[in-house]
Amino acid sequence: MPKIIRGFVRGVDAMNYFIGRFAMYLIFALIGVLMWSSVSKTFFEPTLWTLEMAQFIMVAFYVLGGPYAVQMGSNVRMDLFYGTWSVRQKAWMDAFTVLFLMFYLGVLLYGAIGSTAYSLGHFTGEPFAFFWDLGVTLVTEGPAAAKDKMGFIERSPTAWRPYIWPVKTIMILGVTLMLLQVTAEFFRDIGRIRGVEL
């Protein structure tokens, strides 16, 4: 396998390992928020933010930890036949089926980008053009001018009313990391088919 592919696989593995190990500890933040929710409902006045904050933390935990789970091979597999196959047969099947996952993740990424643009007040047109224009304005004219480019920023309809764009940005990051990880897995499977372990 070419050096650039080996470097890509190692780089993606290292990045997703680091981010995945960080994401594992988000479970403690989730436990803390849920504990505070229980305590405040029992002894004090119930808080408005705990349920949604727990949902946001769970999204980050799940989405940022997904690529790490794929890297570690801890994702769920239906192995009625797969479990008895040789390493090379498994690599052929994985290299074929990962293409469907890549397509799905590409569609999901496009939807996440469009949804994030919507949450920042962009309601028409192409989201990539909106983000390009927003980035150019931020660099050339500063944050105040970039803020003027945004429209009505989406908020949750609950009583707490948090902004939605941070969790949607985490979705973009998580889907991008997953797409990079499954691409690395594809190259790893091609290597196994050729008898090379990456």
UniProtKB/TrEMBL annotation:
Entry coiled-coil feature ranges: none
UniProt similarity note: Belongs to the TRAP transporter small permease family.
Subcellular locations according to the entry: Cell inner membrane
Superkingdom of origin organism: Bacteria
Mode of membrane association: Multi-pass membrane protein
Any one Gene Ontology cellular component term annotated for this protein: plasma membrane
Signal peptide per UniProt: none
Residue spans crossing the bilayer: 12-36, 48-70, 91-113, 163-184
One example GO MF annotation: transmembrane transporter activity
Main location: membrane
Domain Tripartite ATP-independent periplasmic transporters DctQ component residue range list: 30-190
Functional note: Part of the tripartite ATP-independent periplasmic (TRAP) transport system.
Keyword Cell inner membrane (UniProt): yes
Summary of subunit composition and partner proteins: The complex comprises the extracytoplasmic solute receptor protein and the two transmembrane proteins.
Name the UniProt record assigns to this protein: TRAP transporter small permease protein
Keyword Transmembrane helix: yes
Annotated keywords: Cell inner membrane, Cell membrane, Membrane, Transmembrane, Transmembrane helix, Transport
InterPro entries: DctQ, TRAP_DctQ
